[in-house]
Amino acid sequence: MKIPAAAGFVTLMLSCLVHAEICPLSCICKPLGEMKGWLVDCSSKGLKEVPALSVSTRKLYLQNNSMTTVRTGAFDNLHNLEEVNVSDNPWNCDCDILYLKLWLEDFSESSIANVICATPASNERKPLSQLSGNELDSCRKSLSIKCLDFFWRDLALITFAVVLLILTSCALRFSKKLAYPVTARDYYSAAPLLWKHNLENYMSQ
Length: 205
Known about the structure:
Blueprint: H1 2-22, E1 28-31, E2 38-41, E3 57-61, E4 83-85, E5 91-92, H2 98-107, H3 109-113, E6 117-119, H4 137-204
Parallel strand pairs: 2-3, 3-4, 5-6
Antiparallel strand pairs: 1-2
């Protein structure tokens, strides 16, 4: 009787560990059948950011929380996701919202349809799907500045590499020139002795 009880306890512990790994704290998770992933319900939990999510998440509910933005890459590992709801959050629609906007547009039109901006005042009550152009001018300027910084950094690295190659090439050529005169001088200085030695050998024969 003790062995079945122990086995049942171990099974229960493993099940709890798997559930804890899959289900974020304070969320409610339900399996969607064998090998079909999980429904992760984090709605109405007062969350301020997207929790760590398992790759086995297929349905994700994040509506009615206190999230204002989503960190870049938060949804990138959810390759099996089929449904998501992020509506009824006080979204701050500035440059940091671009990741969420682009990700939702790529995921499905319905998932972005009910996402409404709360701040800043210029974008208040505007649908995130309609946010573009003038509303994101500052984001484009910021992106241009960052791209320019990367351009100058890469240009400096390329210039350094080219200069290093030129200096290395010059050093190799100079070392070859130094080696050649020494070799030639040694040869010509040794030539009379060699001739004399050959002559003595010839005369001795």
